[in-house]
Amino acid sequence: MSFEAVLGQEPAIKTLERALRSGKVHHAYRFEGPPGVGKNLAALALAQALLCEAPTPLACQHCSACKRAQTFSEEPPHLPAHPDLLIVERGIYKGVLQASEASGISIEQVRRIVLSRVGFSPHEGRAVVCIVRSAEELTTSAANALLKTLEEPPSRTFFVLLTSKPSRLLDTIRSRTLPVRFGPLPDAVVSKLLAARGLDEKLAQLAHGSMQEALASADPEELSRRSSFSEQLLAGLDAPDLSGALAFAEKLKLERAELTDLLTHLAQVLALRARAIVAEKPEDARRAARRHEIVRSALADIERNVGPQLALEAMVAKLRRT
What is the CATH number of the domain that holds 21? Predict the structure, then answer.
């Protein structure tokens, strides 16, 4: 997994390549950015370079370590073949009690997968690399357990924390990790990646700079679910009174993650609508743009831990007034 596979993130990749070439790789990075923009690919490319048997100082791509660092098991949880590449992710390990990870990445997983391993020398010589996916999901106890290792990192041990919500990380975790920022992907990059998979390039318009969003939009069942939500909500807003829209909102009772997903799609629909009609119906376009901002504001409220149902009902009332 070379850095060349990470498209549209040139500043971040240059930062990592410069660190490798100078021999000044930080012991703990924090890759920040929206979901589906290349953070995980970049983390795997960095891990491959650190594990490579003959780095240039970038990964040679040919040695046994390079090949195993980019080879994952075919069956879930899709773990790497290289023993010195550790993956931490909520719910990924069957041996970790599911109940213990109901609220996030558990201290049990951190102890069993990370702490039991990082205090020892690499199995194969060069380094141990630990990638924590969705690091904002670390429970407080898990984060504090990990913090002790970040404060006194063992030699040749590297951490990469991936997060789309850095504000949810403990301040102490943020202070001991070096941020590398990943932005939304340009539409041209998303279109190129979609074309390579044989998918409709126009889906890039719904992606909001995220390949993850583009792929979700390509799933007929997922697209139908999202579209149904947007259509029903907008239809309720345009009804003679607000009761229909409020009743629709009240009966949903969505979890935070699911509501975030649906509102993100609604925001995309409104943004596309505003652009499509701006020339012929400028007033309607301005209304769609105002509604887009209201939906984005609701998403920000949910990010700040406002209750999902409260955020949804408040958003509906504001949308009705536009």
Answer: 3.40.50.300
